[in-house]
Write a structure and sequence with these properties.
The protein has about 80 residues and is mainly α. It has one domain. Helix content is about 70%, strand content about 0%. Helix 3 crosses helix 5. The termini are far apart. The mean pLDDT is about 90.
């Protein structure tokens, strides 16, 4: 998993299922806000693996959140 960029995961056929699952998680909006406000301000290039380890969340949730936040930033 280490070598793939966030965008490469989006091309996977199960990406939409992962996103749907993460969006249904109760703490998803809180985790997303915290990552945006606290984590990315201090560590803008943090990997989703490190986010998952530091916040003790799933790698899938961390992956979706980082992808969405980086996409929002470029729009």
């Amino acid at each position: 998993m280490k070598g793939l960029s966030l965008e490469e995961y989006v091309d996977n056929p199960v990406w939409t299922i992962l996103v749907e699952t993460v969006h249904k998680m109760i703490l998803y909006p809180h985790h997303k806000a915290y990552i945006q406000r606290e984590i990315l301000n201090k560590h803008p290039d943090i990997s989703f693996q490190d986010v998952a380890l530091n916040l003790e969340i799933s790698r899938g949730e961390a992956l979706v959140i980082l992808y969405e936040l980086k996409k929002e930033k470029t729009e």
